[in-house]
Amino acid sequence: MRNISLVFRRIVRPVSVALVLLLVVSSLQAQDAKEGETIFKANCSSCHKVFGKFLGPELAGVNERHDEAWLLKWIHNAPAMIASGDPAALELDAQYPAAAMTAFPQLQEGQIKSILAYIKSEEEKKAAGDAAGGATGSGNGAAAAASGDASNFMIIGLVAVIALAFVVILVLNRVIRTLERVIANSKDLIPEPELTEKEGKDYLGKLKKLAKNKKLVFFAVLMLVVFLGSAGWKTLWNVGVHEGYQPVQPIKFSHQLHAGVNQIECQYCHGGAFKSKNASIPSANVCMNCHKAITASDKYDGELSPEIAKIYRALDYNPETMEYGPNQRPIEWVRIHNLPDFAYFNHSQHVVVAGVECQTCHGPIETMAEVYQYSPLTMKWCVDCHQKTEVNHQGNAYYDQLIAAHEKLKKGEKVTAAMLGGLECGKCHY
Amino acid sequence: MESNKKYWKGLEELQQTPAFVEKSKGEFAEPIPVEDVLNEAGLSTRTPRRDFLKALGFGLGAVTLAACERTPVHKAVPYLIKPEEVTPGIPNFYASSFKGQSVLVRTREGRPILLEANPSAVGLNCGTDASAQASVLDLYDTSKLKGPKFKGSDISWDALDTNVVTALDAANAAGKQIRIVSSTLNSPSALAAIARFTEKYPTTRLIEVDAVSYSGIIKANQNSFGKSVVPHYRFDNADIIVSVAADFLGTWLSGEEHTQQYISNRDYKSLQKGKMSRHIQFEGGMSLTGTNADVRVAIKPSEEGPLLIALYNAITGSSLPGALSTNQKAQTALKLVVQELQQARGRAVVVSGSNEVAMQTLTNAINVALQSYGSTIDLDNPSYQYKGDDEAFTTFLAEANRGDIDVAFFLDSNPLYSYPDVTAVKDALGKIKFKLSFADREDETASELDAIAPNHNFLESWGDAHPRGGYYTIVQPTINPVYNTRQAEHSLLLWAGEKTDYYTFVKNYWEQQLLVGSSKTWKDVLQTGFEYKGEQPAATYSFDFASLGAVANAIALHSKALAKDVEVQLYQSIAIKDGKQGNNAYLHELPDPVSKVTWDNYAAINPKFAESLGLGENSLVEVAGENGYKVTLPVLMQPGQAMGTVSIAVGYGRTKVGKAGDNVGKNAYPFAKLANGTLQFNTTAKLAKASGTYELAQTQTHHTIEGRNVIRETTFTKYKENPGHNAGKWTDSHKTYDLWNKYEQPGHKWVMAIDLNACTGCGACIVACNIENNIPVVGRDEVRRRREMHWMRIDRYYAIEQSGTSYTKEDEIRNLDDMENVSVVHQPMMCQHCEHAPCETVCPVLATVHSSEGLNHMAYNRCFGTRYCANNCPYKVRRFNWFNYWNDSRFDNYLNNEFTQLVLNPDVVSRSRGVMEKCSMCIQRIQAGKLKAKMEKRPLKEGDITLACGSACSANAIIFGDANDPNSEVSKALKNERVYYVLEEINVQPGIGYMTKVRNTYEA
């Protein structure tokens, strides 16, 4: 034991020093990286990604591939460098004939350094993430859903701790027994076989003894009943609740890429949510507004992305003639959010009138590579929100007409959706 | 209450028959045998325990198995290329027209789901009647043809075209005649297309013939004024209206338009101005118009002519022979009428429903004498809704028999069903080499012809209509053709070698003809839906009174011919009309406004007359016509029917119309006869009691109000003295207590005002409600079991008056000589949205609760069907779903198929079995209207929300709005002195106010 603690102390000291140093350094870098991120998203992200090729080359490792001075010059005015015949610049330009690097004369040297710092920090983040990822395994959607949930995390953590403790105890027992055997061996004493047999019989006897202990049996049965009861209760309450439902879709469309990375407004594709009861899945011609040009072929060795190809196939689109053909087949998406027929829900009421964010119900949609059902969509969930949410009456002349309600609003009292009849059956069931 | 008038819904109620008393005991006619199961014998037997365990075991197993099923995967399939104007979830409206009535078609995701009157065509011809409302269901009719047919087998359009063109060319080469037989065709573009076709095939002639014809009027106007037209009537200019058997508010010419005109002098706004027209109706059968008349006198069809002669003589002081000498009541009424007519020259109109030329000529003479032309009758902007010429069809048959005709096309015409002499038509058709029908189904005629080139439904077509002088409407498609059909006009153009499609043809026609000199473009017209060119000024017409001697003789002859046996009056029912929409389940289930019979036609006979023939309720009678045609029909005891007459509706008894309409009722067209060149719908027959009984599916005594005083009626004279006369305020008479706490209504309070004086009882609102709210059709058998699902009904109450006395007691009825003098009140009845709703307090699961906006909500998913609420509803307006009508093969004819279900309104859930339902006051429309205002950040304004029933009502009898808004029309209407609340005395505080019925009767 003493040995172990010594070894431990020996290791801990340099590690903690390193950690402190790392913290100090990274906090210094963090400021630059943050600024860099903003600049990167504003200027670079339309052609570059940190990881993976986009229209331009992958930026991870750029600090290693080129020296800083060269990079400063290149980002500041790439066309000039190409014109001047810089060999590295020429090589790059030849690699990406489709899109030439744009000049950014407006960027200060410090700003460019910030971008580079941001790229470096992203690399570090990824490295750290990879290490962690190796331990936990590739997380699926459900796990991702759970990760945001603090209480779930706690429970999983506790279970893990208990499991770990159990393993530790087992290992220790084993060690003790081995040690005992070693000691016995060293004394040239062979353990008697009868003894182990006796021990086995004793276990059985102990069990029998325990079974006769009425208190224990009662306790065990009680525990079993409580466990089964609570499990059953939970299961029954969740019949028909499909929180976390994440079906496989015909096209691997990523909201993370479109809404997250590319920051496309929700309204661009789901305009219906702002006008109608249906948020509506965009028609394929909306996809084609961008995907006529964006083929992501750089990711697939110059080939058309297989997912975008599915849109083309649905529309019978010929990229060469740029025309839609006659053999069109609709895309059959799998509906994720299924309200029962007897519940009426109107997106525009919530999005336009109440000003509810999409994320309130749909969760962090901009981070979902594959969409899953974030909210339970139970009536309790609806009612809870209607009870809490204040009516968004500011600047809406409609509410001025509701005289009694208006009086309250003038007095500055809280008027929730429920107070204007938001909990009445007929508001959703007709 | 001053009045002690007795109102009753049906004879069984009046006579309190044992069956009626038994059935009206409970809310549901067939009780559930709970007592039988729970009585001692039921419990003490050995089987219940075993059965219980079996049932329990099975139930558990079944539920477990059902629960094992995986949640079904729902697919969401978006458009590939979304049309710009479509937003899923938001309706689009397209201006179109149905039979010349300008309408807006509401479509959702490319499928039409409802027709509404075009609000910008107010004052022209924009109303929707029951048949217009129901027509949207015809689009989704599965009995329609899926493609063209040739000699009974399917064929491609190309092959059909080759065959047709060969036949046409052969006829052309041989110099033989080509005929297009059509019902009235007033579409200018279609006529132009036929003209184009005639250019290629010069022997072509268009024969227009209507199943129910008005050629008597056309010929009379030709004789009198040299104009062969049906005039445009202006009932809004008439202070006194005398109708001799013309159902002008219902089926005569243009019922909806007439209703709007008529009501403008009788509704609450007019009454507030102290103005009300007087309407006297002389008729045999009880018509919708008769029920609304101020004075209705029952006369036999044979007395119509003599009555007109008497009227003419009295007005002009002449002495034509053959004036009415029988029927004392009619003569008395006539004397009073004449006095008024003479004072109201230029503000009066006399109409006759007869198709006899002589009668119409005499009517013209009377109207000339009354100076009606130019004010109440407009000959210069005539109606083109019915142009059919009966003689032209007779000529066609003669030509065919001679073998002159080689090719005949039938467009919207079905003579093998609707022509009285079917054998004559069959023989004639046999001599025509090539016959083709444009029918959308293999109907009675089409199935006998060589080829069928199925036409589009009007909701799939391009076209136009010219319903009256100066007024043109557009027909535009609102859906892609559902089946492999082709528009008839397009086919004609193709066969004539015209390359342009019909859309371009219509567009060119409008741009080159109708829109010349107008600032409007084709696109403008598509948006407004119509083009109104203004009215032609009235010309002066001279009338040759000297010729009337011959006319009077003709009338006398005609009348004499009718005055034998039992006089038969053939009429069109409000729902089915001439039978063209014979496969429409909504129309079949619409209770007739007068008889409240669904799913059948019948022989309507006066109860006293029936008694004398030995006929009773549920009897069958054999009617044998003059030409030997016999049918056996169920008897309907119709109070108000003239003694010695029988009324039978045409349009029923179709055999090849489709699943829903085949063999519903009996065909009455063969009773009609051709005389003096026009089709006569008044004839004679012999009646004989037939064996057996038949129960009509009649809703009149369903949901009875148990003799409580729910109708308030007064006369115009009394109204002028005291506008609140007889409105019967109960609140003053006793103290009321509230069982419930007052609750806040911070926003709106939705209420309705119903003007009993405006409601004609036509039933358009019922069909509109059915379509808007996905109300199932239940069929004849279920209606007999009192299980119709209509959320709103129109209660029709009879009251008997004889020589100024109201008969109030049951036993007095026996002393009546006849049952001819009944007056009728129509009362639309739907959920009253009571503030103290008795249904709400008895629901054990709170499935029906009150809202802060004054509505009585019904949460179907919460309801588990105890039916306590229906039992406790004093208005009897709740309906119970006995079946899953949407998914039950027993209801296969109506909505139990995927295709017909496309007519459903996606904003309203379709209810499941075991659930109670009722009028929601179109809550989906209220919510949508509110949302629109919220999104536009503005206060809600009048007109944002219309109800299906209210917008379908041409008479504006149903006024809906926010009672918390003092400026809304409904708030103003409810301040009216005439307003009363039904069963106000029980203090349920209903949200729907009714206005007293005011009758402009002659005061003694």
From TrEMBL, chain A:
This is Cytochrome c. Gene3D superfamilies: Cytochrome c-like domain, Cytochrome C3. Residues 31-123 form the Cytochrome c domain. It comes from the Bacteria. Pfam families: Cytochrom_C, Cytochrome_C7. InterPro entries: Cyt_c-like_dom, Cyt_c-like_dom_sf, Cyt_c7-like, Multihaem_cyt_sf. Residues 1-30 form the signal peptide. PANTHER family: CYTOCHROME C7-LIKE DOMAIN-CONTAINING PROTEIN (PTHR39425:SF1), LIPOPROTEIN CYTOCHROME C (PTHR39425). It comes from Parapedobacter defluvii. PROSITE patterns: CYTC (PS51007). The chain crosses the membrane at residues 153-172, 216-233. CDD domains: Cytochrom_C3. The keyword Heme applies. Keywords: Heme, Iron, Membrane, Metal-binding, Signal, Transmembrane, Transmembrane helix.
Automatic annotation (TrEMBL), chain B:
Gene3D superfamilies: 2.40.40.20, 3.30.70.20, 3.40.50.740, Formate dehydrogenase/DMSO reductase. Residues 750-780 form the 4Fe-4S ferredoxin-type domain. It holds the Pfam family Fer4_11. PROSITE patterns: 4FE4S_FER_2. This is Quinol:cytochrome C oxidoreductase. It comes from Parapedobacter defluvii. The gene is actB.
